[in-house]
Design goal:
single chain; 342 residues; alpha/beta; Collagenase (Catalytic Domain); 2 domains; DUF3152
Length: 342
Amino acid sequence: MGPEGHENGRVPVLHDQWREPLRALRDPLAEQPGRIRSNRDEHKRWRKQTWLGRFVSTYGWRAYALPVLVVLTAVVIYQTITGTSAPPLVADAEDPVQGPPTIGAASTEIVGAPPKGLTEFDANLPTGILPDGGPFTPAGAGTWRIVPGATPQVGQGTTKVFTYTVEVEDGIDTTTFGGDDGFARMVSETLANPKSWTHNPQFAFVRVDAAAGVPPDFRVSLTSPMTIRNGCGYDIQLEASCYNPAFEGQPRVFVNEARWVRGAVPFQGDVGSYRQYLINHEVGHAIGYQRHEQCAENGELAPIMMQQTFSTNNDDAARFDPGTVVPDGKTCRFNPWPYPIA
Protein backbone atom coordinates (compact mmCIF):
# COMPACT_ATOMS: atom_id res chain seq x y z
CA MET A 1 0.00 0.00 0.00
CA GLY A 2 1.52 3.29 -1.05
CA PRO A 3 0.79 6.66 0.24
CA GLU A 4 -2.50 7.01 1.94
CA GLY A 5 -5.43 7.03 -0.43
CA HIS A 6 -3.43 5.82 -3.40
CA GLU A 7 -3.07 2.28 -4.44
CA ASN A 8 0.36 0.95 -5.36
CA GLY A 9 1.86 4.43 -4.50
CA ARG A 10 0.71 5.96 -7.77
CA VAL A 11 -0.84 9.40 -8.07
CA PRO A 12 -3.94 9.21 -10.21
CA VAL A 13 -3.98 11.17 -13.41
CA LEU A 14 -6.44 14.04 -13.28
CA HIS A 15 -9.08 14.47 -15.90
CA ASP A 16 -8.16 16.89 -18.68
CA GLN A 17 -10.51 19.53 -17.33
CA TRP A 18 -8.32 19.92 -14.30
CA ARG A 19 -5.26 20.73 -16.44
CA GLU A 20 -6.74 24.08 -17.63
CA PRO A 21 -6.85 27.22 -15.47
CA LEU A 22 -9.90 27.56 -13.31
CA ARG A 23 -12.57 29.89 -14.70
CA ALA A 24 -16.19 30.71 -14.13
CA LEU A 25 -18.64 28.97 -16.35
CA ARG A 26 -20.34 32.29 -17.06
CA ASP A 27 -19.72 36.01 -16.51
CA PRO A 28 -22.54 37.35 -14.38
CA LEU A 29 -21.44 40.95 -14.89
CA ALA A 30 -21.49 40.73 -18.67
CA GLU A 31 -25.07 39.53 -18.55
CA GLN A 32 -26.27 42.54 -16.59
CA PRO A 33 -27.51 45.47 -18.73
CA GLY A 34 -25.73 48.81 -18.45
CA ARG A 35 -22.33 47.43 -17.35
CA ILE A 36 -19.01 48.63 -18.74
CA ARG A 37 -17.93 47.07 -21.98
CA SER A 38 -15.09 44.58 -22.03
CA ASN A 39 -11.50 45.73 -22.73
CA ARG A 40 -11.71 44.04 -26.11
CA ASP A 41 -14.75 46.10 -27.09
CA GLU A 42 -13.09 49.29 -25.89
CA HIS A 43 -9.99 48.48 -27.89
CA LYS A 44 -12.06 47.94 -31.05
CA ARG A 45 -13.91 51.21 -30.51
CA TRP A 46 -10.63 53.10 -29.94
CA ARG A 47 -9.17 51.71 -33.19
CA LYS A 48 -12.21 52.92 -35.13
CA GLN A 49 -11.70 56.56 -33.93
CA THR A 50 -9.89 59.14 -36.05
CA TRP A 51 -6.37 60.18 -35.03
CA LEU A 52 -7.82 63.41 -33.62
CA GLY A 53 -10.35 61.50 -31.52
CA ARG A 54 -7.65 59.18 -30.19
CA PHE A 55 -5.46 62.24 -29.39
CA VAL A 56 -8.27 63.89 -27.42
CA SER A 57 -9.17 60.66 -25.65
CA THR A 58 -5.57 60.15 -24.60
CA TYR A 59 -4.62 63.67 -23.47
CA GLY A 60 -7.93 65.18 -22.35
CA TRP A 61 -7.84 68.97 -21.68
CA ARG A 62 -4.18 69.04 -22.66
CA ALA A 63 -5.25 68.31 -26.22
CA TYR A 64 -6.85 71.77 -26.35
CA ALA A 65 -4.18 73.65 -24.40
CA LEU A 66 -1.26 72.41 -26.50
CA PRO A 67 -2.27 74.07 -29.83
CA VAL A 68 -2.91 77.37 -28.02
CA LEU A 69 0.55 77.19 -26.44
CA VAL A 70 2.12 76.48 -29.83
CA VAL A 71 0.43 79.54 -31.37
CA LEU A 72 1.46 81.84 -28.52
CA THR A 73 5.04 80.60 -28.72
CA ALA A 74 5.12 81.29 -32.46
CA VAL A 75 3.81 84.85 -31.90
CA VAL A 76 6.46 85.57 -29.26
CA ILE A 77 9.24 84.22 -31.50
CA TYR A 78 7.99 86.34 -34.41
CA GLN A 79 7.86 89.50 -32.30
CA THR A 80 11.33 88.82 -30.92
CA ILE A 81 12.81 88.40 -34.40
CA THR A 82 11.01 91.32 -36.05
CA GLY A 83 10.98 93.69 -33.08
CA THR A 84 7.23 94.15 -33.29
CA SER A 85 4.71 93.93 -30.52
CA ALA A 86 1.12 94.71 -29.76
CA PRO A 87 0.30 98.43 -30.21
CA PRO A 88 0.71 100.32 -26.92
CA LEU A 89 -2.02 102.23 -25.24
CA VAL A 90 -2.04 105.91 -26.11
CA ALA A 91 -2.10 107.00 -22.48
CA ASP A 92 -3.08 105.95 -19.04
CA ALA A 93 -6.66 106.25 -17.89
CA GLU A 94 -5.56 109.09 -15.61
CA ASP A 95 -4.17 111.53 -18.15
CA PRO A 96 -2.37 114.48 -16.54
CA VAL A 97 -4.27 117.08 -18.54
CA GLN A 98 -7.66 117.61 -20.09
CA GLY A 99 -7.99 116.67 -23.72
CA PRO A 100 -5.40 115.48 -26.24
CA PRO A 101 -2.36 117.63 -27.10
CA THR A 102 -2.43 119.84 -30.19
CA ILE A 103 0.80 118.43 -31.62
CA GLY A 104 2.16 120.41 -34.54
CA ALA A 105 -0.51 123.13 -34.40
CA ALA A 106 0.76 126.33 -36.01
CA SER A 107 0.58 129.20 -33.53
CA THR A 108 2.42 132.36 -32.56
CA GLU A 109 0.66 132.83 -29.23
CA ILE A 110 2.80 132.88 -26.11
CA VAL A 111 1.74 130.12 -23.73
CA GLY A 112 2.39 129.95 -20.01
CA ALA A 113 2.83 133.54 -18.88
CA PRO A 114 -0.04 135.33 -17.12
CA PRO A 115 -2.49 136.46 -19.80
CA LYS A 116 -2.66 140.03 -20.99
CA GLY A 117 -5.54 142.36 -20.31
CA LEU A 118 -6.19 141.65 -16.63
CA THR A 119 -7.63 144.83 -15.17
CA GLU A 120 -8.13 143.66 -11.60
CA PHE A 121 -4.97 142.03 -10.37
CA ASP A 122 -2.73 142.63 -7.38
CA ALA A 123 0.87 141.99 -8.40
CA ASN A 124 1.75 141.86 -4.70
CA LEU A 125 -0.27 138.71 -4.19
CA PRO A 126 2.05 136.77 -1.84
CA THR A 127 1.90 133.56 -3.81
CA GLY A 128 3.36 135.22 -6.90
CA ILE A 129 6.25 137.11 -5.33
CA LEU A 130 9.77 135.82 -5.96
CA PRO A 131 11.08 134.37 -2.67
CA ASP A 132 14.40 135.27 -1.14
CA GLY A 133 17.38 133.20 -2.16
CA GLY A 134 20.61 133.08 -4.10
CA PRO A 135 21.87 135.57 -6.71
CA PHE A 136 20.83 135.54 -10.35
CA THR A 137 21.64 137.57 -13.43
CA PRO A 138 19.04 140.36 -13.86
CA ALA A 139 19.82 140.96 -17.56
CA GLY A 140 21.71 138.90 -20.09
CA ALA A 141 22.83 139.60 -23.65
CA GLY A 142 19.67 138.44 -25.40
CA THR A 143 21.58 135.72 -27.26
CA TRP A 144 22.02 132.06 -26.31
CA ARG A 145 24.80 129.50 -26.43
CA ILE A 146 23.90 125.88 -27.15
CA VAL A 147 25.26 123.53 -24.49
CA PRO A 148 27.26 120.82 -26.30
CA GLY A 149 26.01 117.29 -25.94
CA ALA A 150 23.35 114.95 -27.27
CA THR A 151 21.32 112.06 -25.88
CA PRO A 152 19.75 108.96 -27.41
CA GLN A 153 16.00 108.86 -27.88
CA VAL A 154 13.95 108.39 -24.73
CA GLY A 155 10.34 107.23 -25.06
CA GLN A 156 8.54 105.36 -27.83
CA GLY A 157 7.36 108.33 -29.88
CA THR A 158 4.42 106.62 -31.60
CA THR A 159 3.05 110.06 -32.50
CA LYS A 160 6.03 112.40 -32.34
CA VAL A 161 9.76 112.31 -31.58
CA PHE A 162 10.70 115.81 -30.43
CA THR A 163 14.22 117.14 -30.86
CA TYR A 164 15.44 119.87 -28.53
CA THR A 165 18.53 121.83 -27.64
CA VAL A 166 19.57 123.05 -24.20
CA GLU A 167 20.76 126.65 -24.22
CA VAL A 168 21.97 129.29 -21.76
CA GLU A 169 21.70 133.02 -22.36
CA ASP A 170 25.01 134.74 -22.83
CA GLY A 171 25.89 136.75 -19.74
CA ILE A 172 24.39 134.28 -17.24
CA ASP A 173 26.85 132.79 -14.78
CA THR A 174 25.80 129.23 -14.08
CA THR A 175 28.66 128.25 -11.74
CA THR A 176 26.49 128.52 -8.63
CA PHE A 177 24.20 125.70 -9.81
CA GLY A 178 26.48 123.27 -11.61
CA GLY A 179 27.47 125.22 -14.70
CA ASP A 180 25.98 124.92 -18.18
CA ASP A 181 26.37 121.15 -18.08
CA GLY A 182 24.53 120.99 -14.76
CA PHE A 183 21.55 122.84 -16.23
CA ALA A 184 21.58 120.68 -19.37
CA ARG A 185 21.80 117.48 -17.33
CA MET A 186 18.81 118.52 -15.22
CA VAL A 187 16.75 119.11 -18.36
CA SER A 188 17.71 115.83 -20.05
CA GLU A 189 17.34 113.67 -16.94
CA THR A 190 13.96 115.19 -16.14
CA LEU A 191 12.58 114.47 -19.61
CA ALA A 192 14.03 110.94 -19.49
CA ASN A 193 12.36 110.14 -16.17
CA PRO A 194 9.53 107.57 -16.46
CA LYS A 195 7.27 109.96 -14.53
CA SER A 196 7.73 112.63 -17.19
CA TRP A 197 6.05 112.92 -20.59
CA THR A 198 7.58 109.77 -22.07
CA HIS A 199 5.33 107.68 -19.82
CA ASN A 200 2.85 108.38 -22.60
CA PRO A 201 4.05 106.28 -25.58
CA GLN A 202 3.00 109.07 -27.94
CA PHE A 203 6.06 111.10 -26.97
CA ALA A 204 9.81 110.72 -27.32
CA PHE A 205 12.67 113.18 -26.94
CA VAL A 206 16.14 113.46 -28.46
CA ARG A 207 18.56 116.11 -27.29
CA VAL A 208 20.70 117.53 -30.08
CA ASP A 209 23.28 120.30 -30.25
CA ALA A 210 24.77 122.64 -32.85
CA ALA A 211 26.52 119.73 -34.55
CA ALA A 212 23.16 118.32 -35.64
CA GLY A 213 22.88 121.04 -38.28
CA VAL A 214 19.08 120.85 -38.21
CA PRO A 215 16.83 123.24 -36.23
CA PRO A 216 15.27 121.46 -33.23
CA ASP A 217 11.57 121.29 -32.53
CA PHE A 218 12.12 123.58 -29.55
CA ARG A 219 14.91 125.14 -27.48
CA VAL A 220 15.00 124.91 -23.68
CA SER A 221 16.65 128.20 -22.79
CA LEU A 222 17.81 129.41 -19.39
CA THR A 223 17.11 133.13 -19.61
CA SER A 224 17.52 136.23 -17.46
CA PRO A 225 14.42 138.03 -16.13
CA MET A 226 14.84 141.11 -18.35
CA THR A 227 15.09 139.01 -21.52
CA ILE A 228 12.12 136.94 -20.32
CA ARG A 229 10.04 140.11 -20.36
CA ASN A 230 10.80 140.42 -24.04
CA GLY A 231 10.06 136.77 -24.77
CA CYS A 232 7.08 136.20 -22.45
CA GLY A 233 5.65 139.67 -21.80
CA TYR A 234 5.41 141.57 -18.54
CA ASP A 235 1.85 142.83 -18.33
CA ILE A 236 1.67 141.28 -14.88
CA GLN A 237 4.81 142.23 -13.05
CA LEU A 238 5.81 138.83 -11.80
CA GLU A 239 8.74 136.62 -12.72
CA ALA A 240 7.40 133.99 -15.07
CA SER A 241 8.57 131.36 -17.53
CA CYS A 242 6.73 130.55 -20.76
CA TYR A 243 6.74 128.90 -24.15
CA ASN A 244 6.97 131.17 -27.17
CA PRO A 245 6.39 129.16 -30.38
CA ALA A 246 7.68 131.90 -32.68
CA PHE A 247 10.33 133.93 -30.83
CA GLU A 248 12.60 135.28 -33.57
CA GLY A 249 11.29 132.51 -35.79
CA GLN A 250 12.20 129.71 -33.38
CA PRO A 251 10.09 127.83 -30.81
CA ARG A 252 11.65 128.53 -27.43
CA VAL A 253 10.94 127.33 -23.91
CA PHE A 254 11.93 130.22 -21.66
CA VAL A 255 13.16 129.12 -18.24
CA ASN A 256 13.44 132.15 -15.94
CA GLU A 257 16.80 132.06 -14.17
CA ALA A 258 15.37 133.93 -11.16
CA ARG A 259 12.85 131.11 -10.66
CA TRP A 260 15.50 128.46 -11.39
CA VAL A 261 17.61 129.82 -8.53
CA ARG A 262 14.90 130.72 -6.00
CA GLY A 263 11.82 128.66 -6.81
CA ALA A 264 8.28 129.77 -5.92
CA VAL A 265 6.34 130.37 -2.70
CA PRO A 266 3.31 128.14 -3.49
CA PHE A 267 5.53 125.21 -4.48
CA GLN A 268 6.32 123.74 -1.09
CA GLY A 269 8.92 121.25 -2.35
CA ASP A 270 12.67 121.77 -2.53
CA VAL A 271 14.21 123.80 -5.34
CA GLY A 272 15.29 120.64 -7.19
CA SER A 273 11.68 119.44 -7.39
CA TYR A 274 10.60 122.91 -8.49
CA ARG A 275 13.12 122.82 -11.34
CA GLN A 276 11.70 119.49 -12.46
CA TYR A 277 8.21 121.01 -12.37
CA LEU A 278 9.38 124.03 -14.38
CA ILE A 279 10.87 121.84 -17.11
CA ASN A 280 7.89 119.49 -17.32
CA HIS A 281 5.33 122.31 -17.28
CA GLU A 282 6.91 124.47 -19.97
CA VAL A 283 7.87 121.51 -22.16
CA GLY A 284 4.26 120.39 -21.76
CA HIS A 285 3.25 123.59 -23.54
CA ALA A 286 5.88 122.95 -26.24
CA ILE A 287 4.60 119.44 -27.04
CA GLY A 288 1.00 120.57 -27.42
CA TYR A 289 -0.65 121.07 -24.01
CA GLN A 290 -1.61 124.70 -24.31
CA ARG A 291 -4.25 125.05 -21.62
CA HIS A 292 -3.64 125.39 -17.92
CA GLU A 293 -5.33 123.15 -15.38
CA GLN A 294 -6.87 123.65 -11.98
CA CYS A 295 -6.90 121.63 -8.78
CA ALA A 296 -9.46 118.84 -9.08
CA GLU A 297 -9.84 117.84 -5.42
CA ASN A 298 -8.59 119.17 -2.09
CA GLY A 299 -5.36 117.54 -1.01
CA GLU A 300 -4.61 115.82 -4.32
CA LEU A 301 -1.39 116.33 -6.24
CA ALA A 302 -1.62 119.36 -8.48
CA PRO A 303 -1.82 118.63 -12.22
CA ILE A 304 1.46 119.38 -13.96
CA MET A 305 -0.23 121.99 -16.16
CA MET A 306 -1.45 123.98 -13.18
CA GLN A 307 0.54 127.20 -12.71
CA GLN A 308 2.17 126.08 -9.50
CA THR A 309 4.65 128.93 -9.72
CA PHE A 310 1.80 131.27 -8.80
CA SER A 311 -0.57 129.13 -6.75
CA THR A 312 -1.88 125.64 -6.01
CA ASN A 313 -5.21 127.11 -4.87
CA ASN A 314 -7.98 127.61 -7.41
CA ASP A 315 -9.13 130.91 -5.91
CA ASP A 316 -5.68 132.46 -6.37
CA ALA A 317 -5.05 130.72 -9.71
CA ALA A 318 -8.30 132.11 -11.09
CA ARG A 319 -6.87 135.60 -10.65
CA PHE A 320 -3.93 134.69 -12.88
CA ASP A 321 -5.95 132.71 -15.39
CA PRO A 322 -9.64 133.65 -15.09
CA GLY A 323 -10.55 132.15 -18.44
CA THR A 324 -9.50 128.65 -17.39
CA VAL A 325 -9.58 128.26 -13.62
CA VAL A 326 -12.82 128.37 -11.62
CA PRO A 327 -12.50 129.77 -8.08
CA ASP A 328 -13.95 126.99 -5.93
CA GLY A 329 -11.67 127.04 -2.87
CA LYS A 330 -9.87 123.78 -3.67
CA THR A 331 -6.16 123.49 -2.91
CA CYS A 332 -3.76 120.86 -4.17
CA ARG A 333 -0.29 119.73 -3.12
CA PHE A 334 2.77 120.58 -5.19
CA ASN A 335 3.71 118.08 -7.90
CA PRO A 336 6.63 118.19 -10.39
CA TRP A 337 5.54 115.29 -12.66
CA PRO A 338 2.96 114.63 -15.39
CA TYR A 339 2.65 111.00 -14.20
CA PRO A 340 3.68 111.08 -10.53
CA ILE A 341 2.60 107.48 -9.82
CA ALA A 342 4.17 105.94 -12.94
